[in-house]
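Attaching the record inline, Q. Sequence:
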Amino acid sequence: MKTISEISKEEIIKRTSYMNDNILYLDLETTNDGKIKDVGAIFNEQEIHENQLSKLENWIDQCNYICGHNIVAHDIPILKNILGKDIFCNKSIVDTLLWSPLLFSENPYHKLVKGYKIVNDLDINNPLSDCKLTKQLLLDELNRFNDLDPGIRKIYSSLLANSIDYSGFLELAKFPNQIINIGDEINRIFKNKFCLNANSKSICEKYPIELAYALALMHTESDKSILPPYINKTFPNTQKIIDHIRFKSCEEPTCLYCTSNLNPQKALQNYFGFENFRKFDEAEEISLQETTVRAGLSNKSFVAVFPTGGGKSLTFQLPALMKGSLTRQLTVVISPLVSLMKDQVENLEKRFDITKAVAINGLLSPLERENAIDRIEKGDIQIVYLSPESLRSSTILRILKQRSIARFVIDEAHCFSSWGQDFRVDYLYIAEFIKKLEEDKPTIKIPVSCFTATANPQVIADIKAYFKDKLNLDLVEFITRASRTNLHYEVLPVSDADDKMKTLVALLHRCQKPAIIYASRTKRVEEIHALLEKTSFNATFFHGKLDKEVKKEYMEAFMNNEKDIIVATSAFGMGVDKDDVKSVIHYNISDSLENYVQEAGRAGRDENIKAKCYILFNEHDLNKHFSLLQQTKINQKEIQQIWQAIKYLSKFRKNKKISNSALEIAQKAGWDTEIHELETRVKTSIAALEDQGFLKRNQNSSRIFANSMMVPNFDEAVKIINNSSELSETQITNCSRVLKIIVSDKESRIDYLADRTALRLNEIREIIDLLRSLQILGDAKDLTAFITLNSSKNSSKNILAKYQKIELAMQDVLCKDIKISMRQLNQRIIDSGLDISSIDAVRNILNYWEIRKFIQKNRVDRANDLYKIKIINSSKIKEDIIWRHELSLDICELLEKFQSDEKVILDAKKDLPVSFSMLQLRNSNHLFGTIKEEDLSKYEKSLLFLNQIKSIKLEGGFMVTYNRLNIEDINRNIPRFTQENFKNIGDHYDHKTQQIHIVGEYAKKRLQNYESALIYVNDYFSQPYEEFISKYFPRRKSEITRPITPERFKEITGNLDTDQRKIVDDHRSEKTIVLAGPGSGKTKVLVHKIASLLLMEDIKPEQFLMLTFSKAASLEFRSRVRQLVPEYAQLINITTFHGFCFQLLGQMGDLQKSTKIIQDCITAIKENEVDISSIINKSVLVLDEFQDVNSIEWELIQIIIKKAKNIRVVAVGDDDQNIYSFRGASNQNMLEFQNIYNAMEYQLLKNYRSTSNIVEFSNELLTRIPNRLKGNQILEPANKHNGQKINIIKYSSCHLEKALAEKVIEDDNSGTRAVLVPTNEQALLIRTYLSDSGQKTKLITGLEGFSLDHLHELRIFSSYLKQNKNDAGIIYNTIWEEAKERFSHSFENKLHFDVCWAIILKFEVNYDSTKQLVDWYDYLREIKMEDAIHGDSDAIIISTMHKSKGKEFDHVYLLLENYNFNDAESKRIVYVGCSRAKQSLQIHCNSAFFDGFETDKIQKISYEGVTTPPNHIELVLGHKDIYLRSQKYSKTASNINKLQSGDLLKKIKVKFKDNEALGLCNLDGDNVLLFSKHFMDTKYSKLVKEGYELSSGTVEYLVYWYDSVEEKEYKVVLPKLKFIKSIK
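Structure, as predicted:
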């Protein structure tokens, strides 16, 4: 083609004469519904630009030619409809769009053409300007036509002259339609460019236009040229013709084209330099690789199974490159591994100099992504690698629709199958995506190739069924069962972690290098690498958490042989593609046989190398895989929560659609939003819902942000931008770039704009803001906020007011970097005087600060909700708060006004929708006619803040930059995602469980016999699954469905009796009540049930909650669960009722709060004042000692059940041990639970504690207790040994204490001994008698009015911890040890040292990983003194029967003096006391109650001695016995501060003006307390009447008392008094 400079003046004049032939140029601008809004035309040097048609109609009548761009499809049909169908009769039509690809086929987009449109840089939507450009384009096209080879012109004329859409151009070009032999001419011009045996004559006749476009494409020199999208859409057979004549081999040896271009053997040599395809079986005549390549060159769809290292990638790359070059089509490769995509693209370029492939994934920079998209659109790319997740992107859909797709290649195709080891829900969208590509081309069927290295028959069947069902494609199978003969497999047994590491080091010394070591976790990879470096191995490592550049450096070091060992995680190790690897070592066995074979296949990829594959096998590794599966899988409850969230989010949507992020959906579902791979889990749940017809998920969001131009043309817009004094140079440049794309491409979606400009999403948002504020872009009301206008505390404005106060307090608390729990942080805000604070509010504000980059936060301890918070800029937080608080209030008030202006009458005032725009918001916010805040970005930030704190619910608009999930067809009538709905995804997880067992079985077989292990693997990949299972697990089918190893299963269930096992094995009952008798192993059963729930019943740790009545019980359960399930022990919540309520309210408790905390919690839940996501997400509630539940606790339980919805409840209790009626406990609650929830009842009646005599006696006692829930069921002794008879010593007098004490001393039983009594006073008296006789004792009585955190000794210990903790309340181990040492030094010889020391050590054992001050205070508040006192053979335990509950002793003595047996509870108390005994039971009583017990297990003895009142009595006083105000005086307080527990005190009478008062003083006579009137009138006067006189006292307890009136704390003395019998 001549250049303009080469064309003579005469030729130019001749060619431009074309333009004077009576041509009318026209262009119409229309609305979306096809109505004309503007008209432009040029005729005979005249112009019109108007919206009337009269003049245009006159010009049409006068002209000979009608010329325009896309007039055949657009302008002419519209004008015919308006002006009449005959308006264009006898007119020649010239459409420059139709001729552009024919004449400029090297690049189908001429410089003036973009798709269907003219590129107009001067005027925006100006049809007259477009006419001028069309005129220029026509001149270019005519000149280009004249420059074509005459033969080409003849072909075009012959093919197109008979079409009125094309003949006008030929007339204008003055090119006559010459009669030629079209077939011969085509064969001449296009010799060796297509198969000459193709039936071109038939094609000429049927598809002349399509053939013209096909030939134009073939005539190009470069293989970059492609068919424009509008040709593919308008003439879909064009691509078929290209395929037919260019890619369908005639198989004739004489056809030079086919033998040169369609011979895969030659193409293999040309592209990859290989002479032959790889063979897996020498007996094959044609290798599987070549067979599969040939299938890829056809239109067949198929599934192929290649071994790792078998050349799978080349098998689809070669046909893709051939097809891309010859037919200009694009092959799409779907791959799940980003690293593999990148490696394959780089490998093609570096090894084979092939640059026609690109990967689009998250690793690309914006510029790289823009470049990749641009290359695809321009035809420079023949293979594109995509992740399955990216198919949801509207940008990906758009660019693929612009290309003709040769084939979809699905790598790792086993991901389709729920039987596959790596099932991925995003794969299930592939068919839907292919349908979207095909919807504009109904005659096109895109073939599919599925590749996998490892797949059993069931997986293959699943893949084929998917494509048959979804796309009606029948996949042919190409499968090799040949194994890699150059690999040798070994399994090395290891006993534990240390042995495994030693074995690895020894192996590395002897194995060949290079070597790959696979480990399951990132942390383990780094540990192994560190050890190898210490032992001088030349090693590197590789995992996904390394920085991009570091990863590249480490990988290249291995690939280039600088390092001969690489340690890698399995997932990222798959990216290691090195031919000469001689050893692959699995430090942790793979989680499936498929994965193991694939990972081991990284060795010996060069078939000439003999390589070895090792497994370091410990069966415990299988349990780690089971544990990981349990943590990562989605269970039914979680999917149901997502369903409920989606239904809630759609309740305002009439169109049954929502567009929300995964984070928003997870938050609404009550999930922990910081769990690993949150978005993947949400998408998986949505996919499960979609699979069951609950909803449909569509492409990711595409929002329009600007709906019109506000200036006449682009030049005007640029002037405004350049003249703006407020814009920086960068902003001016970016505004111009973005605006140009909006104008030329008619696109204003931010994802599109970001792709095209390589700017970030937030930068695009800011530019849109600027263009709107400059009034260049129109302002759409694209934002919707839901506001609440009522006067409740949950109104939008009241929520804002609350958060403003909390945020102001937070900025003072968080002034420097800190590690702190959310609860501790919330408590510090509360302590600052802001009791409205909550963890939910604190978390929301922190999230907002993090979004704004004021802070960085990272959860470092999930169990303790512990965060590391780094303050990036505290001054910016303060500045931000100042303007944002004021502006946020303005916005709330403006939204209220906008809502009222809409005049939509709604009954409720909650969640009212308000539509608005950013500019409207800004322009409405004025004071005295002046806009209060001009900066639009501040409005945006304030709106985000309001949305974050849930003051408003914000939807729509360009503000939202996260990835939206578009969900439609939401069937809100479906109430629940049931177990039946869960079956498909449940089957997948069941198969993964079985695969872990199967790979474990392989390791065991390999340890026994090499050949049998190889046969086992071969059978797995060749036999039907059920046949394989029947062969290798004939009697173990149930075993391999359990997600634990057989050995661990035995640990959980093997040591249980039949009744206990039934409870643990019950995986179905929604509500269960276990009536457990004493000594029946209730705690053991619960611990094993918890292990079963976590390991075998699909319950996540965060879904579990257990409530106990005492801190000791919760700690005991935690300790025992830790032994059985150590991986979950720190993640499950086992706490008391009070502790749970403090957690939920985000507070730290004390005695004052404890009294009403449960009621406060219930109220907060009912009034929506607290975040209940931690309740909503619970799947199991376990209740211990259910018989002790009172009405308020029962109400809390019912609320938890209601809010958690369909929660499983396991309640354990013993109605026969209900002895706390004084605190409201009632068996009625157990009965209601059974009736309301139809609970499944189990009974544990076998007693493992006591001898059969004691059990029989206890049963006799049970028969006298009315209204038992167990009915007539009685205990069964597990120990058939009778043991000693029960001694009932009957007295005829009172004062039995001394006689009982003497009997204890006389018996001198070995083992643990306990004396159990009804009252504290009796316990003290018994202790006095025993102590006076030289016996060591431990006393368990109630601490009335104070908890252990008020005890002086422990308060000293706590003070040291508090003074030396860090800002976050963390107690470092060094501080803890220092505190212990100081405590021991100060109190070692004091009265309560042993108990306090036991309390301290108990905390240490149970909080060994992380000690926090908040946990220490919680612990002290709830732990009881009796929890630290345990029976031992050296000391006699003296306790009230109430306090003895839950304990057991070898020998028990019961004191029942003057005991009242009249009601059921009194009998139950005695039953509790009796059932504590293991070997012997002795009852001292003076009533006839036991006279009716007729059994040979009892020995009744009448006491013959004389009982007398004690000579002295000891009495420990409580708060009510002291005149507390007497201890507040400064002098008294000073005296008390000098005292320690155990100090002696003297009786004193203190005289006042009108009276005197009795009290105690120190040995110096200084008063320390006065007795209360209550004490004097009751206890004191009674003892005086009985002849006792107060002798002296000692300091029993020094405690802190809180005066609620003064709101101040005082140290007070609680003494022990000694009364001596008066001698008359």
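The CA atoms of residues 634 and 681 lie 7 Å apart. The longest helix spans residues 874-902.

More tomorrow.
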